[in-house]
């Protein structure tokens, strides 16, 4: 899988993410995302039961499709289309890359611990990298690094430069400033493997529930089983959308390749009939309006059960990502992109021009990238879908 910038494949050398485009102008965010490729890698200094020392996961259009961790010791497919489509030698090559990445991750952890003058104990590195192909044909890249659940370094889209979160990160920023890499080639290849699955449109099943607590009515709107992950969920009072009062959950993958999300709002019990949930999704011919029917029933345990299965399927690599998002102050915006995450304070980016989010939004953890990259076809290539340092280290 090679997230940490190994010698080849989508997680290989973290060079030429931008291609040889040189200077570029910030794109206009007017086009929708057609497809996205993101890689997340997490390394911890003290592994424990269920939390390997090093973990990687790849996402195409938000769907986990490859994974690696130091306990399994091998890159594995998470979808049938990736298992069927990968070329001979792909898994062996990616496994070798990931194996080489682990000791570099450990060194990077030690480097940052020293820079921050911290004692030994549990420390964590995260890298989230990737790219989106937009409907206008442009490509948007993303690059974000985290240490102990907080932003360490990211790429600022407006200036086209890496942004260091503090003085310790500034050393790394200078080393990375001239690096470039490539991602769309791999994204298009993976989309080709799973085109039938990735281009389908499954509308959501929507259920509205409510309960009273201390004189307040809490209304919840759950959208379940939809694909693709792009969805807008809003609460309306009368004819007005009430986003300021709405709390959103994330768009979370299910074990069957679909997604679920929710939106919640507090209301006065006597105003219950004024509230409606509005859901918009590419699989729906038009936006749907849903009200709470207190006598209606819906098998909520199904969502819980599938979510548990998904949690088993998706390794604890996501724990680091969740912690990172929570501690870096991410917020949920329910407007035209309801239930989609917007990182703060940085716009994740490092591309030639325009993903989903999340997941992830290729990725790595600042690993050694001095090896020769391998192209999707198996031959030598000038790049991979990762950004990063030329030698991968943060020292």
TrEMBL record:
Gene Ontology CC terms, in alphabetical order: external side of plasma membrane; extracellular space; MHC class I protein complex
Keyword set, alphabetical order: Disulfide bond, Glycoprotein, Immunity, Membrane, MHC I, Signal, Transmembrane, Transmembrane helix
Keyword Translocase: no
Gene Ontology biological-process annotations: antigen processing and presentation of peptide antigen via MHC class I; immune response
Protein's membrane topology: Single-pass type I membrane protein
Compartment annotation: Membrane
Matching PROSITE patterns: IG_LIKE (PS50835), IG_MHC (PS00290)
TM regions (residue ranges): 302-326
Main subcellular location: membrane
Spans annotated as Disordered: 345-395
InterPro entries cross-referenced by the UniProt entry: Ig-like_dom, Ig-like_dom_sf, Ig-like_fold, Ig/MHC_CS, Ig_C1-set, MHC_class-I_related, MHC_I-like_Ag-recog, MHC_I-like_Ag-recog_sf
Residue stretches of biased makeup (Low complexity): 375-389
Domain Ig-like as annotated: residue spans: 204-281
Family in the record: Belongs to the MHC class I family.
The protein, known as: Ig-like domain-containing protein
Source organism (scientific name): Cyanoderma ruficeps
């Amino acid at each position: 899988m090679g997230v940490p910038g190994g010698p080849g494949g989508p997680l290989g050398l973290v060079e030429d993410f931008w291609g040889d485009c040189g200077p570029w102008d910030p794109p206009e965010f007017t086009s929708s995302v057609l497809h996205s490729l993101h890689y997340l890698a997490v390394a911890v200094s003290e592994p424990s039961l269920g939390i390997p020392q090093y973990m990687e996961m790849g996402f195409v259009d938000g769907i986990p499709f490859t994974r690696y961790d130091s306990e399994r010791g091998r890159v594995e497919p998470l979808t049938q289309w990736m298992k069927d489509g990968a070329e001979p030698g792909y898994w062996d090559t990616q496994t070798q890359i990931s194996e080489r990445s682990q000791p570099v991750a450990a060194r990077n952890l030690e480097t940052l611990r020293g820079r921050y003058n911290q004692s030994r104990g549990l420390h964590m590195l995260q890298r989230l990298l990737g790219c989106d192909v937009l409907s206008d044909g442009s490509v948007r890249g993303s690059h974000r690094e985290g240490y102990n659940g907080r932003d360490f370094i990211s790429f600022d889209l407006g200036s086209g430069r890496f942004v260091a979160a503090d003085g310790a990160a500034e050393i790394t920023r200078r080393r990375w400033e001239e690096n470039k890499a490539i991602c769309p080639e791999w994204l298009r290849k993976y989309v080709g493997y799973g085109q039938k699955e990735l281009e389908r449109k499954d509308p959501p099943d929507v259920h509205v529930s409510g309960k009273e607590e201390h004189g307040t009515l809490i209304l919840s709107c759950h959208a379940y089983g939809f694909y693709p992950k792009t969805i807008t969920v809003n609460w309306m009072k009368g004819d007005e959308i009430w986003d300021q009062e709405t709390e959103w959950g994330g768009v979370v993958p299910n074990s069957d390749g679909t997604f679920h999300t929710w939106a919640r709002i507090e209301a006065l019990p006597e105003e219950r009939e004024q509230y409606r949930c509005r859901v918009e999704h590419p699989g729906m011919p038009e936006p749907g309006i849903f009200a709470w029917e207190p006598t209606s029933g819906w098998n909520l345990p199904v969502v819980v059960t599938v979510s548990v299965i998904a949690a088993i399927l998706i390794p604890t690599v996501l724990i680091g990502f969740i912690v990172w998002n929570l501690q870096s102050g991410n917020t949920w915006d329910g407007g035209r992109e309801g239930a989609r995450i917007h990182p703060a304070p940085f716009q994740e980016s490092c591309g030639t021009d325009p993903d989903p989010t999340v997941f992830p939004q290729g990725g790595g953890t600042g690993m050694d990238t001095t090896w020769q990259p391998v192209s999707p076809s198996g031959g030598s290539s000038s790049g991979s879908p990762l950004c990063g340092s030329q030698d991968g280290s943060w020292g």
